[in-house]
Amino acid sequence: MPKISFLLPIYNGELFLTETMDSLLAQTHDDFDIVVIDDGSTDDTADVINGYDDARIKYHYKENGGLVSALNMALGMMDCELVARIDADDICAADRLARQSAFIDFTQAVAVSGRAVNIDPSGNVLGINAPEQDFFNVDAGSIPAREPYLPHPFLMARLDVLNEIGGFRHAHLAEDTDLCWRLSQVDRIALQTAVLGKYRIHETSISNASTVGGRVQAFYSQLATLNAVRRDAGEAEVVYKFSMAEAKAIATDFDALVDAFGDVLSEAEAAHLRAASVMKYLDISNWRYHRITRDDLAYARAALKAVELSDANKEKVEQILTPLKVRQPELFG
Length: 333
What we know:
Elements: E1 4-10, H1 14-25, E2 32-39, H2 45-50, E3 57-62, H3 67-77, E4 82-85, E5 91-92, H4 96-107, E6 111-119, E7 125-129, E8 156-158, H5 159-164, H6 175-184, E9 189-200, H7 206-209, H8 211-232, H9 244-250, H10 254-259, H11 267-285, H12 294-305, H13 311-327
C-alpha cells in the first residue's frame, strides 16, 4: 500500500484539472497514489483523467451525490497511512507531500495543513492564504468563533483517525470546519508555515459567487462550533439536517436558518448563532465575491445587541467591519 493517498473529488472540473493533476504527479515524495472520485461530471473530466497513463491514478465514477458522499466513498476505498486532500482547481507545490509527511512525523499530529498562494482563474497571484488568528488561541464562544482551522484543500490527516471520527459530514460548505473541530477534540492537529501550493479563487465557486451560498457556509460553520461546545459538555449534537438545495432555499436570511433548527436550540444558543453567523458572513465577504447590503449590516447590529460581547470581541467585530468600510463605503454613510 502507498504511504499517502491524494483524495481528489471532482464535479465538472475539466477547466483546471490538467494543472492540478500535473502538480500531483510531479511530487518529490514518490510513495503515493491518487484516488479520484468523479461525482457524476457531465463535462470532459473523465477524458482528462483517462488521458494520463499512470498506474498511481485510481479513477472512480459515481452518480452525483455531493461532495461529502464523494469524500466518504474515497475513504472507504483507501489503504494508506495518510490522506492528502486536494481540489480539482488547486495546485500542489512539488514538495508538498514530502514537507507535510515530515511535519506530521515531527509533530505527531493526526492532521496538518499549511499556507497557500491565492490565485485568480488566470493564475495571477492575489496574496497568501493563512489563518489570521493564533492557531492555538481557539475560542468557540467568540463571535464569530475562532476555529482550530486547517485549510482544507491542503489538509493531510491519518486515515485511521478520519475513519474513527466518522469521516466527513454534511455541514454544507463548512464540512472542513466541522472536521477540524472533531479532529482537534480527539488529538493534536497542527498548522505549518510552509506554502504548500496555490489555491484558486473564482466566481464559479458556490460559496464565492452566491450570497445564499455564503449564508449557508457561515451558518453551518457556526453550527459546527456549537456542536463542538455540546460535545465538550457531553450533550447531544445538533443534527445537520437538510440537503444542500433545502439549506439554500431556507437561507433567505439568518433568522430563517436559525429558526429551522429552533426546536433543538436554547434561546441563548439561538441568539449566539444569529450573531456569530452574520459576523462570519461579513468576515468571509472580505475575500469572497459576494457584496454586503445595508440589510446585512442592519441585521448584524441587531443580532450583536442581543448578545454580550467582551472588549476583545468588540475589537474583533471592528476588525471585520474595517475592510468593508474601505470596500463598500456607501453602506456606512
